[in-house]
Amino acid sequence: MATVTDLSQSSSPVGSLFAAQLSGDPDRFRLSDDQVRFFEENGYLAGVRILDDAQVDALRAELAEWFDPNHPGRELWYEYHTNESADPNRVLFHALGAWRIKPGFHDLLWNPAFTVPAAQLLGGAVRFWHDQLFCKPARHGGVVAWHQDYSYWTRTVPMAHLTCWIGLDDSTIDNGCVHYVPGSHRWPLLPITGLAGDMEAIRQVLDDRQWERFSHPVAVELKAGEATFHHPLMVHGSFANRTDRPRRATVINVFRDGVRSDTDDVLLDGVPPIPRGEPMGGPFFPMLYDPASA
User: Fold this and answer.
1) Cys-Cys link to 232, which of 6, 16, 146, 161 (CB 3.0-4.6 A)?
2) Pfam families recorded for this chain (predicted)?
3) Per-residue three-class SS string for the chain
4) pLDDT in tens, 178-224
5) pTM more than 0.90
């Protein structure tokens, strides 16, 4: 198998895919005051354009190679699941670490169409946590069960995190778009109840009033290249893909500079530990954007 350079050793873009966004005034990517208020009130913000059509095509081409489990760079993933579901008829491809393997997914992290809004919503400088791929094949794509992202991230404190979900296909109700429970970002931290199984597993950790909110979740339909941002406590999930087209997405998870490790164990598989209490940093958690120095 061919050797792949670990791109985590490059804390800046290595290619030209995002040259157009990186040139010029980054303030052109700023969210409006109304958009920021909507995020604060509801816990999410949808419809932010992150990628143009050519960039979507380039990322799809990089992604296509990874569906073969024997692809070059296989050893660089933090996690890699051709199907995180236990059911072969409900497939959820899920992997963490794409930024280490391919230049497009690496350079996406520094795209100001993402980093500038992220800095506004975080209220400070943006540091990388990890990326994810969530892909549902045509006709038998699985679910992503209701969950809060921070329930998986409590090894980092304080909670000053943000998720950006970017569609690489048009995402619709029929093919398994993201659904949100608006206002659930004000709920306390919930226990983990599983990521790729029963959509109703979360019921066991909710009171009746919380569960009533699931009768009218918001379905966020997006065009390919558009994104939604959400709060780390926002309860979200996505249903199965039964259409004749795939639903592919990439996710960038970040936190505000100053977040610290809360464990002496490894934070991500294959990454050297950061001692408990020490600020998150180094080549695996690079600074992506600091508005104070822009």
Assistant:
1) 161
2) PhyH
3) CCCCCCHHHCCCCCCCCCHHHHCCCHHHHCCCHHHHHHHHHHCEEEEEECCCHHHHHHHHHHHHHHHCCCCCCHHHCCEEECCCCCCCCCECEEEECHHHCCHHHHHHCCCHHHHHHHHHHHCCCEEEEEEEEEEECCCCECCEEEECHHHHCCCEECCCEEEEEEECCCECCCCCCEEECCCHHHCCCCCCCCCCCCCCHHHHHCCHHHHHHHHCCEEECECCCEEEEECCCCCEEECCECCCCCEEEEEEEEEECCCEECCCCCCCCCCCCCCCCCECCCCCCCEEECCCCC
4) 999 999 999 999 999 988 878 989 999 999 999 999 988 999 999 99
5) yes
